[in-house]
Every structure is written in C-alpha cells, then in structure tokens.
Amino acid sequence: MAAAEFPEAEFPFVGDNSRGCRVAVKRPEAGRPALVHLVKRGKGEFILSGQERGAGATRDTLPSVYSTDDCDARLLLPVNTTHLKVEPFDGEPCSWAMRVLPLGEAAAFTGEHVGESSDVLYRFDAMPGLLEVEVERAQDHQRWEVSFVCDHQLGGPLYVDRFCRECEAVTDRETERIGTRLADYVEATGEDGGRFFVPGSGVITFVSEDNCRWSLRAARL
Whole-prediction pTM value? Predict the structure, then answer.
C-alpha cells in the first residue's frame, strides 16, 4: 500500500521507507494521555518511538514498537511524550500512516479480550486482580509484552524506568497474603503466555513486533 492510499483526513501523518521523520504530538485532549494508531504495510524494518523534547534535552519515552511486517496497532501515548520519531531501517518497501486518538477510544476490559495486534485496553475495576495472557500465530523470534499502567501513572510523566509506589505497596501486600511473588508484566517470544498482577484500575497495554493473535482473561487470584 502506498502512502497516498491512506485517507489523509483520518491519518494526518503518512510516509514510506524512503526516509525517517519526527512529528510533534497534537493531543485531542490537552494534558491527557492519548492513543497512537499506527498502520504499517510491508516487510521493511521500522521503529516508532516517543520522545520528550525541551530545554535543550531529549529523553526517550513511550511508545516504542519495532515491526518487520504488516501491523495495525494502538499504542499508549503518555502525557510527557512531545514527539514521535519514525525510523525505517532498510530498503524493503513499506508504507505507514499514523494518527492520535483520545484515550477514551481504548476498549474497556470486562474480563476477557481477544486481539490481533498491539492494543490498549482500559480496566475500570479498582480491585486487585490476576490476568492471564496467551499468544498464538506468532513467529518464534517475535517479541511481545503485556503490562499495566495504573491511573496514578497516567496522570503524570510516564517513563519506561518509572514505577508507582502506591501500586508497589498493593503488590507487596497481596504477595504477603498469598505467599508468592506476583509478576507485574509478561514478556516473551513466539507462541507463549503467562499471568501478571494488576493492582487496580488503569490501562493494559499489549505490544508486539507484528500482528499476532492474543487473548487476555481474568484469572483467580
């Protein structure tokens, strides 16, 4: 699919494998986290990454996704991400389109969900819980990760190396109660799965290199 085939009214940012670019984020809701909707066609290597630019310094932020094939992904855009950087890496043909959507367009997680690509779900339940993920139709080398961002983090800057103290306290309490340390994310390659702990309400993010079938369901804690 050529870049021109993406409807400009729906996808204001389009490109191909001929060059990289950096775009400034225009949020639908000022000061609020949002979603990045990315559509890529072709097998060229491609990286989308977030940046926080200001005061003469640049810091890497979320989102961050690597793709070598078709993808139709939704990714979390934190409040501190000011720019999105696109980097095609080889001469293989590819085209891409990108737009920013309100966080309210994330699907609600109601206990079970099936997806085909990277996605963002909102969990309204404030009670701690355990979630089980299973990934199918993935290549052996294909990396993926599912994780949770609590409401406390969504309201402020979000970095890949920052954790929420309130949620850590809930996790420690539940670990002591059941006698087993609870993972707060699952990452793997290929067809795999696992369980992870969510301390309350917030956003569940599933990020995969390329399209794959995955399912998520609530498990007994």
Answer: 0.87
